[in-house]
Specification:
heterodimer; A: 475 residues; alpha/beta; 7-stranded mixed beta sheet; globular; B: 87 residues; mainly alpha
């Protein structure tokens, strides 16, 4: 065997989960290489430069934030497992976020990193529901959400045992679904618990310089541990022999071998690389994709009256419909993120104002458009998305906003597929998760979105868990 | 290698994997889990670091031997001595 082309572990994809798996494995002496098709790391949580500005993709806020001294939560586990000092992430907490429902945001529930704020808002606005809500929270706190073999249960059904007002039910589901559900209408209860804890019981934070800071820390750890990385070098085929991956064919045509393969690219995407010959039904990819509009402002959003909210989850309809829309975009609900509204400390903030809006979108309405039509659709939908979202933040006159706007950008489901390779622009992957990360091949394991720990911290924990479970624990 | 040195090695490992724990008053006879917030992931890391740093193998069946600093010392010291003798 040509040892220079043989690795103990080959990892496909340099996103958060692949990097985290790589750090663990390299730290414990495995010969590891991460193969990434794109020229930047981060996968679904990355950044790009346009006219000298850096734009984050993915990260609105790092969820799962807990203050120093709080132990046993996903953030602490992650820091320990990757030997990261929490100061390296330089996390700054959110100011406040809201769930705003009704055509003008008439019902609004505020929450911060202090859970009692959310609880008292619910007590004030849904007094009949508060006892049920508290019982639900007790159940959530006690739930073992990292079990790798729990039976799936409907989250809607569990929540309805405790919450009888559909408005409150939807207001709880909206943030939780928008920040991680690959399933339409409902979620698996374990997934709901992971996200509920991540958003409400823990909280939001981010480094001043955004996702780049986190990626830089991960890359440094990986490099220090001796991990290799090949960029602009994707994997085109997993060669299977006797139920095992015997080789990986790279974009360059080169072949490498590895004792273990960890794939972070998604379950159907991995299956496609294997070119299934087992006769099993192919895994179905997710249908949920998103557009995001980004508006860069020449002043702090606070100067326009947008200084309070960090994140706003909004919905204008009688029921919250988390579903792949028929139209290219569904602007009835969405998420607003104003990254300036984290508490970066006195006199510290981002140099420019940023106003981001995410809405559900339909991949196949964007994918086939000829370039000119695609650009026109982006312009038209940008305006519609922004108009819809502005109903849920303090009113600013159109001309005042236009005058403050330096530039805008927008990504669509098509952008997501182009840069991440996820089929159908499915940010949260396929609706069916594979908790144990198994594939049809004995030595190929999944990590990342399709393994099923959600959010950025979840993605990293997924890489860690799969590296531990399948490789490190076995010696 | 004395038992005290062996305890120090284990404490040094815990200090690296759980820098947020206060290790100044760890009681050697009390289970580590009862005085520090260590979960199964952390115990796996103690085992892995023993292998990485000191070439000491702890088979899964023996993990309970690492419950307290005293039991660690009882279990690991002969392994360290065997390595020295071989070395």
């Amino acid at each position: 065997m040509n040892t220079s082309n043989h690795y103990d572990v080959a990892i496909i994809g340099a996103g958060m989960s692949g990097l985290a798996a790589g750090i663990r494995l390299a730290h414990f002496g495995k010969k590891v290489c991460i193969f990434e098709r794109h020229n930047a790391v981060g996968g679904l949580n990355s950044f790009y430069s346009l006219s000298g500005r850096k734009f984050d993709v993915g990260l609105h806020a790092l969820t799962n934030f807990v203050r120093p001294g709080v132990k046993g939560t996903p953030l602490t586990k992650l820091l320990r497992q990757l030997r990261i000092d929490r100061a390296e992430f330089a996390l700054c907490e959110q100011k406040q976020s809201r769930v705003a429902f009704g055509p003008g945001g008439e019902t609004s529930l505020r929450f911060t990193n202090d859970f009692s704020v959310f609880e008292s808002e619910i007590a004030a606005q849904f007094p009949v529901q508060i006892d049920g809500f508290r019982r639900l929270v007790t159940k959530i706190r006690a739930f073992d959400d990292v079990s790798l073999d729990a039976a799936p249960v409907s989250a809607r059904a569990v929540v309805r045992e405790h919450i009888t007002d559909p408005l409150l039910e939807d207001m709880l589901f909206c943030p939780v679904m928008y920040y991680g559900s690959a399933q339409e209408h409902d979620m698996e209860f374990g997934q709901f618990v992971i996200m509920f804890k991540a958003l409400f019981l823990e909280g939001f934070a981010r480094p001043l310089d955004g996702v780049r800071v986190i990626l830089r820390v991960l890359l440094d750890k990986y490099r220090q541990a001796g991990g290799e990385r090949r960029m602009k070098c994707g994997v085109t085929k997993i060669v299977a022999h006797a139920s095992r991956a015997s080789a990986l064919v790279l974009d360059s045509g080169e072949e490498i071998t590895a004792t273990h393969v960890i794939s972070s690219i998604g379950a159907p995407e991995t299956e496609r690389l294997i070119g299934s010959a087992t006769g099993k039904l192919p895994l179905s990819p997710g249908r949920l994709s998103f557009v995001e509009t980004i508006t860069i402002l020449n002043r702090q959003p606070a100067e326009l009256g947008w200084g309070r909210d960090t994140i706003v989850f909004f919905n204008d309809s009688p029921r919250f419909d988390y579903v792949c829309p028929d139209e290219p975009v569904d602007v009835r609900s969405g998420v607003i993120c104003i990254p300036n509204n984290f508490d970066y400390g006195p006199d510290l903030n981002l140099a420019e104002g940023i106003f981001r809006v995410t809405c559900l979108a339909r991949y196949d309405r964007w994918a086939p458009l000829p370039e000119a039509d695609y650009q026109a659709a982006k312009r038209a939908w940008f305006a519609t998305v922004q108009r819809s979202a502005r109903r849920f933040v303090p009113t600013i006159a159109d001309d005042a906003l236009a005058e403050a706007t330096l530039t805008t950008d927008m990504f669509t489901p098509r952008t997501i597929t182009k840069f991440t390779g996820h089929i159908g622009g499915a940010i949260y992957g396929a609706p069916v998760k594979h908790r144990q990360g198994r594939t049809e091949l004995e030595n190929v394991y999944l990590c990342g979105t399709d393994q099923g720990f959600l959010g950025i911290i979840g993605a990293m924990l997924s890489g860690i868990s799969m590296a531990n479970y399948h490789i490190l624990q076995k010696g | 290698m004395t038992k005290e040195e062996c305890k120090k090695i284990v404490l040094d490992i815990i200090a690296d994997i759980a820098p947020d724990e206060d290790l100044s008053n760890v009681k050697p006879e009390v289970r580590l889990r009862d005085q520090l917030q260590l979960d199964s992931m952390d115990f796996l890391d103690i085992v892995m670091e023993l292998r990485k740093r000191h070439s000491i193998e702890v088979p899964e069946a023996d993990y309970q031997q690492l419950a307290s600093l005293d039991s660690c010392a009882e279990y690991l010291t002969p392994k360290f001595l065997a390595l020295v003798a071989k070395g």
